[in-house]
Fold this sequence. Notes:
alpha/beta
Amino acid sequence: MKAAILRGEKRIEIEDWLVPDFKENEVLVAVRSVAICGSDLHGFQGLIPLRRPIGITMGHELSGTVAEVGSKITNVKEGDHVAVDPQLSCGECHPCRQGWRNLCENVRVIGSAMRGYQHGANAEYVAVPGENVYKMPGNLSFDEAAMAEPVGNAIHLVRRTGVGKGANVVILGAGAIGSIVIQVAKGFGAKKVTVIEPSAFKRELAKKMGADETLHPDKDDIIEHIYRDTGGLGADIILECCGIDATYNMAIQLARKRGIVGAFGYLDEEVTFPMKPIIFSEISIIGSTGFYWPDDPALEMMADGRIDVKPLITHSFPLDNAQEAYELAEKPESIKVVINP
């Protein structure tokens, strides 16, 4: 099979590899679509060498066709169209026993070396546990189903932070996750969603996704605007989807008393917070990572139209052009780039 291998900083090479073996409890998936995540892009850029080391096949947002099944597989059969949960949890640790599979202490992720080298889906085939594959609704394309992972993350973030009817929500960052979060927050009843984003292209897309207002972080006085807009109170919930020090700092300053900051973005290893508003305004900071497929119905919400990811898929490339795909994913005019092996 062909596989796109990370062979250096901003260098991907197409190589011939053996089709992966699969165990009795695993499924061999013929990959049809794999979307480039921000973490994959950071790996391409050499920013996270421990998580995306040289020599790995990246790609964890995927869908495909079941090519073969192990002897113990009963939930899918050859030929089924499936989306794949890339979080390989152990099922035995304390978080797993509580039903928090996304917080598994031994979790491995397809296309990552975070807790063990696990080649990903930038290839023609990938082998995954049977419990990690889910049949696609018939009205979804492979490209759309490959977006189930970021959609699930967005749903989990919104649910973790308690967005509900009447909430005044600010979203920092309108990349793929931020754009999906807009739709989820509105679907969960948010009264107003304001998006902070420097890219004019992404601000315009955010409006199409349902944002009530978009602001430029350098050209608009964000703090003054939000406080004026909320009658001097501050926003109820701020969802951070960038992952850098400056935006986390801003998120704290935008929160009302007993407001909530949802921490999702993760690029800077450490960020600084202004402690005075956290303590004296009793601001809550709630982390969010991954999602649990049975509880965060990504495929269902896409299938019934509550979430539309089609406008976010800005480009697609065959596997042979993976290098070009990653180079384009760096550019501001792209939101989600998909590779079709």
